[in-house]
Amino acid sequence: MFVRRKRNASGSFSVQIIRKVGRINKVVKTLGSSSDERELDTLERQARLEIDRLQGQATIFSREKDESLTSMLSTISNNEIELVGPDKILGHVYESIGYERIGIDELFKELVISRLVYPGSKLKTIDYLARYKNKEISVYSIYRYMDKIHKEFKEKVEEITFEHFKDVLGGRIGVVFYDMTTLYFETPDEDDLRKIGYSKDGKHQHPQIKLGLLVGPEGYPLGYDIFEGNIYEGYTLIPFLESIEKKFLIGKPIVIADAGLLSNSNIQALIDHGYKFVLGGKIRNENREIKEAIQQLEIAEDKPREVNKGGNRLIISFSKKRQKKDEYNRKKGLEKLEKKVKNGKLDKNSINNRGYNKYLKLESEVKVAIDYRKYEMDAKWDGLKGYLTNTDMNPNEVIGAYGDLWQIEKAFRISKTDIRVRPIYHRIPKRIRTHICICFVSYAVFKELERLLKIKKVAFSANRAVELTKNMYQIRVFLPESKTYTTVPLKPTDEQQELISAIMKI
């Protein structure tokens, strides 16, 4: 504010207090007018005193506003600050897939979201709900809930998931990827479901179950099933495919699976049921006739060849990168064997075809030695990879299709690390089944989030998006005038706003 003299039409001057607002001068107060210079000086002194008074009031008022705001904020308790990011973002994705059609209360949704945000035991889940959602629920309530829903949910969940991702894939699923993994338990006890068996995780002393997962292109989940821990994974494929085909009228997609499913009975079963397939081929384990046929081929990089195997096509490819890797692994395996032989840690029971033990031999019926000739002969397979198929795809198409099997490997990696489907702490079979169902839905939500971020060309990953939701809060405040409560979301960061804009507009 400042003092101004303004000439009047009569020739006198008015003394005014002026406030500049933008480019406009506004009159705050006119102190008076006069033609006498001494009177005008007096009016100007009064004007300056008035400015001091007005500015002092503004300072006091600003201080009062600060104190009022501070006082109001001090009344907000911790339980009036709520984490809303996971519900806002992940809950929206959950509903966009269609899981709200399951038609139950919010607890299932909260268990799915907590599995994505704070994966762990159910004790960790109730800690998350209490600390961030202000919801008190006992672990026994969750257990009873899991016992109640275990039967009906799998079918509904698979139906909704399949329908959604079938639409995402354009209404037709021409290729499916199948694989199986082991999930171990933190207990020594076995039952009808949990069995000690061969473990891909090296947890041979722990009871386990086997989880079969079927995904489409891009790793989109289509279905799952749970098997006893000691079942041979090759026995699971056909029953699983038949069940999916029957439920969803999927037709006969091309089945792509790992070499672990490559048994003669399995291959014949796929053929008998009308399936086309691409399976990883164990060429080092083939019979002599096929091995000789392979060795007679001239196979260059990017120029795969093929041989006939029982009416099916065995595609053989060569890669220099794979050759170096195979050679390195053979040498490391040999070094470990040499160390064990030197230390006398091997006996005749160690001579088998497991891994690099195939390089062992028995000398003088008592001494275990290394068969270096067999080791050197094995070098001719370095860099070669086999693919068995009954499709009419050209060799490069077969190799490309099998190469997409990494999608299901990524699915298991996400499930085991980000969602932490294992280790499993439950011991009752129905709770185990519900736990796997929750993890399957969590994976579906994660993949849909990943897809939406890609569509919207968002730079960060789905993992980063989940992290961003963990710091999106709202506060509940009391409005003294209306004597009501309202919730106010805290201002998001630029990254959080980008995430909100990408997901909430679907």
Task: Write a structural description.
One of its GO terms (biological process) is DNA transposition. Residues 174-443 form the Transposase IS4-like domain. The longest helix has 38 residues, at 37-74. 45% of the residues lie in helices and 20% in strands. It is built from 15 helices and 16 strands. By secondary structure, it is an alpha+beta fold. Strands 7-6-5-8-9-14-11-10 form an 8-stranded mixed beta sheet, sandwiched between helices. α7 links the parallel β8 (254-257) and β9 (277-281). α2 (85-97) packs across α3 (107-117), α2 packs across α13 (429-455) and α3 packs across α13 (429-455). The protein folds into 4 domains: 2-74; 80-88 and 460-503, no CATH class; 94-282 and 398-455, Ribonuclease H-like superfamily/Ribonuclease H (Nucleotidyltransferase, domain 5); 323-380, no CATH class. It has helices spanning 37-74, 85-97, 107-117, 122-133, 139-168, 237-248, 264-272, 288-295, 320-342, 372-377, 395-403, 406-417, 429-455, 462-469, 494-503, and strands spanning 2-7, 13-21, 24-34, 81-83, 175-184, 208-215, 221-228, 254-257, 277-281, 305-309, 312-318, 360-363, 367-370, 384-389, 473-479, 484-489.
Alpha plus pi helix count = 15
Indicate the percent of residues in helices.
40-55%
CATH architecture of the largest domain: 2-Layer Sandwich
Q: What name goes with the CATH superfamily of the largest domain?
A: Ribonuclease H-like superfamily/Ribonuclease H
Pairing-aware structural class of the strands and helices? alpha+beta
Number of domains: 4
What is the beta-strand fraction? 15-25%
CATH fold descriptor of the largest domain: Nucleotidyltransferase, domain 5
Q: Please tell me how large the radius of gyration is.
A: 36 Å
**DSSP, total strands:** 16
CATH class of the largest domain: Alpha Beta
Overall pLDDT metric: 83
**Strand order of the biggest β-sheet:** 7-6-5-8-9-14-11-10
Low-confidence stretches: 190-199
Q: What distance separates the N and C termini?
A: 51 Å
**What general outline do the C-alpha atoms trace?**
elongated
Query: Main beta sheet, described?
Result: 8 strands, mixed
